[in-house]
């Protein structure tokens, strides 16, 4: 069992994804934490391996090969680190692999506690299979039969303001308790009660013996006007591990290495977003997007407020065919630079679901893969946007607020062949507005730092400042109503040595001005035709910007991004944009 | 790197767990020889429940109502029978609406399970019962040929193997399905229309082993009452040569088509088992191996998706693929002599 982490200790962090398991080793170099090495290998959660631990050990073996440091022996993980240099002082892990959690939500009023329960369910890798509220007209026995048929993994119960009415909530508990009683013990759901706290003892009495676990959190709706999901989300993350330990062989060993705490990857990601949002709070929010085989995860921080959306329906693995319930094949193909038939795309989607960890080997397969990723991420961002605080300013209804920065991670983004392709994919899918810095998290560090943060507050800060994340550059996304080819902005970049780079940005184009990593310069923006370059419609301004792999990128394609209907013209444009970003 | 194995084996020892979805009674005995249609376990399952709120009907508090409830947990009750009678000179009564069994009483309520149905679990494959799983089922061991697939419609059946695929990429049409094929498990290449699936249902056939199916036909395929298994995937993929050779050389033999839904998180996988007699027990299949030169592999994704080849060279470290991605990769020599560069993650070993 690892010793508790003290400042200065080495840390091994492992993220177990549905397709890929990644391990990252951190240690102190010249007085500061640094990322020493990372390794990844296929996850082994599913058939034929059926053992999460196998993939973790394989990945750590690869890490050993890279670093020359022995981390495993016949007994497992070597902890703490030994005088001969082997081992590691602490271990943390995050997990997104596993089947989507079937979740039933129970609340009172549709627009109040039930809505909070649904939002809470959306904060983890779950799919709501049943929803029961006071307005639901099914009889209790029908509710029992539904629960018996669906066999949810998790039931979230909300309802009742603290100290408020209890009778209605009790009535809602009965079907859950009776269904739990009738189910075989190994199929009983884990239950989270996040309602009227006065009822905790009654809930224990009613459900204590008929659930696989019963957890309590502070009320998500302590009063009619107040919603506080964070404590319940923390409890849900704890429950998630409990459910997964029952479902996934080999997880117990990994959980023991991590002192019993394996966090859901999305929760750990959100934890970092909240942390960053608070310490780097500016006038803008902070956005983190992650898309992989299990889900698309969108976390946004707005100072003291944050939102988290976990969307398994937009994951690129076994759930991929469900994407077609939310979009059309034509809408996916609009992003492709190649002429691909809808039939080929449909076959791709179903075939990829059979083999979630496979990767595109040909250019055509890569084009399809990126089109699917764009559309899935686009839909996830659009879904998450609905939960952003209404007080946050947006340039136009339906557009995103301006974020600073935007962090992007997940297998599908980090593995793009070129930085230009990553950048264009993110611009198309997220469609940011105003000025922002795009940061690529190629090693999926953000959730791992979130997992480490609870035990070592210095490590995440030092890693963030160490350059372990890759800046793609500063992006100016112009909001304008114009026709293709119309001048929408004149930009000038003044470097520290006094020389300048300029560009006339026409509607529908992308312009790149070189500015390397660790460099900064003054960017002057003069919009035309009432375009908004981030300072308000038609307003000019100057701002100091940082560079990145692609320098300063001016996206003059407008928001929302509208692609031509004519496929020939559209393919030409997409190719032109790819060429603009150096592909 | 670890390699998953797709089983396409001419002769192997096969162990399969057969369990009830709920607890029940195991009928089969240890070491019993079973045939596919033998019932090995059974259970009863209540499809519905009726909750009778005695307290509310009698207008009494739950505790007071509990004392008036006449039935006990486990008791069978008939429709119309009285399970509680109120007090007074004209007492109200609570009657059972349907035949059933009392499962819970308390809190002034009675929960009755109704619409009980019986589940019979059949052996599915011929063989010997080598393990009893108490109250749930058995493990059966058999020997024979094994072909695993990638998708199944959840049905299981047995019949004589008949080949309608002259080539691995032959397209099965409704016109090929005549009455002589009734009761057969048919080997076919691709299926591209609903009519063919429905014509097979009308005969009926005992199963369809297809290379691939158009995704647009999936919902119809799921509804068919006969098993459908895909060996390779979706779209217009030909049957991989290893599966095609093995299946077509076993024509006229009895085959079990277990078109189970593929579940990554359990051992459920669609497969065809062709029981064969043996003099000595062959080795059971290997689930996982290490990639190495000389291994026979199947390609899971383009280029050459579904094709069989041999690992000729394993590249050290990461290799840049035509897509631009960098990944551990190998040169694969396909059966047509062509050599292709494939990431290891897109391969599965055949064996």
How many beta strands in the DSSP annotation of chain B? 29
Quote the distance from N terminus to C terminus of chain A.
Answer: 48 Å
Helix content of chain A: 25-40%
Strand portion of chain B: over 45%
Protein architecture, described:
The complex is a heterodimer of chains A (583) and B (351). Chain A has helices at residues 52-67, 110-121, 140-150, 167-182, 200-207, 230-247, 251-257, 265-279, 329-333, 342-354, 363-385, 411-414, 419-430, 445-453, 458-464, 567-580, and strands at residues 11-16, 20-29, 32-42, 72-73, 76-77, 90-95, 101-106, 126-132, 154-157, 190-193, 213-216, 262-264, 285-291, 296-302, 305-311, 403-409, 434-441, 470-477, 487-495, 500-506, 510-513, 520-527, 541-546, 552-555. With 583 residues, chain A is of the alpha/beta class. Chain A folds into three domains: 11-95, Nucleotidyltransferase, domain 5 (2-Layer Sandwich); 101-247, Response regulator (Rossmann fold), CATH 3.40.50; 266-580, no CATH class. In chain A, the strands form five sheets. Chain A has an eight-stranded mixed beta sheet with strand order 15-14-13-16-17-18-24-21, sandwiched between helices. Chain A has a five-stranded mixed beta sheet with strand order 3-2-1-6-12. In chain A, strand 1 and strand 2 form a beta hairpin. In chain A, helix 4 (167-182) runs parallel beside helix 5 (200-207), helix 11 (363-385) packs parallel to helix 13 and helix 14 runs antiparallel to helix 15 (458-464). The longest helix of chain A has 23 residues, at 363-385. Chain A is globular. Chain A starts with 10 loop residues before the first strand and ends with a helix. Mean pLDDT of chain A is 93; it is low at 1-6. Chain B is mainly β and 351 residues long. Chain B has three domains: 8-38 and 125-275, Phosphohistidine domain (Glucose Oxidase, domain 1, 3-Layer(bba) Sandwich), CATH 3.50.30; 45-117, OB fold (Dihydrolipoamide Acetyltransferase, E2P) (Beta Barrel), CATH 2.40.50; 291-350, SH3 type barrels (Roll), CATH 2.30.30. Helix content of chain B is 9%, strand content 46%. Chain B is built from five helices and 29 strands. Chain B has helices at 54-58, 62-66, 194-202, 218-223, 241-248, and strands spanning 2-6, 8-19, 25-26, 33-34, 39-53, 76-77, 82-85, 93-95, 100-106, 109-122, 127-133, 137-148, 151-152, 155-163, 171-172, 184-187, 190-191, 207-213, 228-234, 254-259, 271-275, 288-290, 296-299, 308-314, 319-320, 326-327, 329-334, 339-343, 347-350. In chain B, the strands form five sheets. In chain B, strands 2, 4, 11, 12, 13, 14, 15, 16, 17, 18, 19, 20 and 21 form a 13-stranded mixed beta sheet that branches. A seven-stranded mixed beta sheet of chain B has the order 22-1-29-23-24-27-28, with no helix packed on it. In chain B, strands 3-5-10-9-6 form a five-stranded antiparallel beta sheet. In chain B, strand 27 and strand 28 form a beta hairpin. Chain B is elongated. The two termini of chain B are 17 Å apart. Chains A and B meet through helix 3, helix 4, helix 10 and helix 11 of A and strand 1, strand 5, strand 10, strand 26 and strand 28 of B.
